[in-house]
Design a protein that fits this description.
By secondary structure, this protein is of the alpha/beta class. It is built from 20 helices and 16 strands. The strands form four sheets. The protein has an eight-stranded mixed β-sheet. Strands 2-1-3-4 form a four-stranded parallel β-sheet, sandwiched between helices. It is globular. The structure holds FE2/S2 (inorganic) cluster (FES). FE2/S2 (inorganic) cluster binds next to loops.
Length: about 575
């Protein structure tokens, strides 16, 4: 780091007279009640991501108190400051639209304020990637902690969890399998405690991968939100933040290519959320590392899915915690990991692993010779329909549909989908392939989690549970289905997805990693000539929306703004 100033002398406000800037700063911070003695300590920033709209962050005030206690015990001065927070269900049009705004906020506030290190408190899906993106760019010593997963609920003797079971019960309600009274009863039980979704959705995925990345204290990803241990973890995180400040251990020494490869390996082995691919492309991109989707696919072909959590398996995060958390998985993956990668506690990944508890008995993390899914749980598809790639999570799909040719039933937008998907006159069969256009980064905008296209009601009522569905959207990590996502380039910028018409034939061949629109080249060229981007809307021309539409990149570049990432200096993962 170029700036070697510490404490209040860091990042002085520009008055043209540094001593005057410090004099003024001292005057105003004393108005907060601090003594000179307190102000001599390392200053540890603590991000406050609490919001009345974010139940996943409901415990943040308590965690902040514990972090501050840890900072004080270790001789630092904690100072909390607010950042944007994002909850999946309270961000219109989608939280992904605002992730980069939160990342910019985090980066600039870390950089603008006199913090010697910072504790990043995240949890809900977009908050962890946004904080890591911001911290990577600010490159001030930083340590992440998560709010932790919720505990499960119970309905008629069956465990329930957000949000795999949200979707499962909603699908049953749509199919008239359960009535309104029961769906309302279930609604009150799906999120029974504070914390993040307790299945292997994006929040759990990002927490586990961030621990594997080395940015969290070892053992902290899976601790349930409402356990006392979560609060003790916060205290330990605060204490470690003081040491980080003294050691000046900045994110660029932790988030190395080795560390990203460890995180991507874990992403594959946990059967994690496909969203994490986009987020890791963005986080790595901030440090000049470009995500090589084909190399990621090759990594996937040699990585078994070992964690038996919903939606791929049967358990929930509280069970993974009881099973020893991430360490139990890392032990299984040991030959595939970079053990010397430095982590935020100053030790290497394998030093931490050696110190981790070994559960006496557990059935959540499988051995490599008895996987949940042998290899390729996530696959990268290419073909004339997705020249820059598309993703399918075949570990959470119907095996029979992984090689499938069908007739396209096309919806031109989310509005079109909402208007017609349940129309009894819709010309659709279970063997067709549903195509959704204009749901990508620029198209929606914000690449919402609309890729989990509902089964048309008339088919759902006949008992159809899965069909091939294709879009340029994302999908919640909590969802299950034969769903092709992140088709790149997206339809709104004229990607081939925009050229698909009702009745076209599409071929999906996951074993061969192909996604093909079986329409001859001359016809496609004619369609391309006629293609017009959608007319701009009035609101497209101002504010954050204009910035977003002008600069957001495609999914393979993490949907980051084009001006936020430096030039790519290395492609990861570096597989052969
Ligand atoms: Fe916050 Fe699922 S809605 S983690």
């Amino acid at each position: 780091m170029a700036d070697v100033k510490r404490g209040l002398r860091r990042n002085l406000t520009a008055y043209g007279d540094e001593e005057f800037s410090l004099f003024l700063r001292r005057a105003f911070i004393k108005a907060m009640g601090y003594t000179d003695e307190a102000l001599e300590r390392p200053i540890i920033g603590v991000t406050n991501t609490y919001s009345g709209f974010n139940a996943c962050h409901r415990t943040v005030p308590e965690l902040i108190e514990a972090v501050k206690r840890g900072v004080m015990l270790a001789g630092g001065l904690p100072v909390e400051f607010p950042t944007i927070t994002l909850h999946e269900s309270f961000a219109y049009p989608t939280s992904m639209y605002l992730r980069n705004l939160m990342a910019v906020d985090a980066e600039e506030m870390i950089r603008a304020q006199p913090v010697d290190s910072v504790v990043l408190i995240g949890g809900c899906d977009k908050t962890v990637p946004a904080l890591l993106m911001g911290a990577a760019s600010a490159n001030v010593p930083a340590i992440l902690m998560v709010t932790g997963p919720m505990l499960t609920g119970n309905h008629k003797g069956e465990r329930l969890g957000a949000c795999t079971d949200c979707r499962r019960f909603w699908a049953r309600f749509r199919a008239k399998d359960i009535d309104e009274a029961e769906i309302n009863e279930v609604n009150a039980k799906l999120a029974p405690t504070a914390g993040t979704c307790m299945v292997m959705g994006t929040a759990s995925t990002m927490a586990l991968c961030a621990e594997a990345l080395g940015m969290m204290l070892p053992g902290s990803a899976a601790i349930p939100a409402v356990f006392a241990e979560r609060v003790r973890n916060a205290e330990a995180t605060g204490a470690r933040a003081v040491a980080l400040a003294k050691e000046r251990l900045a994110p660029d020494r932790i988030m190395t290519p080795d560390a990203f490869e460890n995180a991507l390996r874990v992403l594959l082995a946990i059967g994690g959320s496909t969203n994490a691919i986009v987020h890791f492309a963005a986080i790595a991109g901030r440090l000049g590392f470009g995500l090589d989707l084909d190399a990621f696919d090759r990594m996937g072909r040699e990585t078994p899915v070992l964690v038996d959590l919903k939606p791929t398996g049967q358990h929930y995060m509280e069970h993974l915690y009881e099973a020893g958390g991430l360490a139990t998985l890392l032990r299984e993956l040991k030959p595939m990991l970079h053990g010397n990668a430095l982590t935020v506690n100053g030790k290497t990944l394998f030093e931490n692993l050696d110190a981790a508890r070994i559960p006496e008995k557990q059935d959540v993390v499988r051995s490599r010779d008895n996987p949940i899914f042998a290899a390729g749980g996530m696959a990268v598809l290419r073909g004339n329909l997705a020249p820059d790639g598309a993703i399918i999570k075949q570990a959470a799909a119907t095996a029979r549909l992984m090689t499938h040719t069908g007739r396209a039933v096309v919806f031109e937008s989310l509005e079109d989908l909402a208007n017609r998907i349940d129309d009894p006159a819709l010309d659709v069969t279970a063997e067709d392939i549903i195509v959704l256009q204009s749901a990508g980064p620029k198209g929606a905008p914000g690449m919402p989690e609309a890729g989990y296209i509902p089964i048309p009601r008339k088919l759902a009522e006949q008992g159809v549970k899965d069909m091939v569905r294709i879009s340029d959207a994302r999908m919640s990590g909590t969802a299950f289905g034969s769903i092709v996502l992140h088709v790149t380039p997206e339809s709104a910028v004229g990607g081939p997805l925009a050229l698909v018409k009702n009745g076209d034939t599409i071929r999906l061949d996951v074993p061969q990693r192909r996604l093909e629109l079986l329409v001859d080249d001359a016809e496609l060229a004619a369609r391309r000539k006629r293609w017009q981007p959608r007319a701009p809307r009035r609101e497209d021309d101002r504010g954050y929306r204009k910035l977003f539409l002008d600069t957001v990149q495609q999914a393979d570049r993490g949907c980051d703004f084009d001006f936020l990432a430096p030039e790519v200096t290395m492609r990861i993962p570096r597989t052969s």
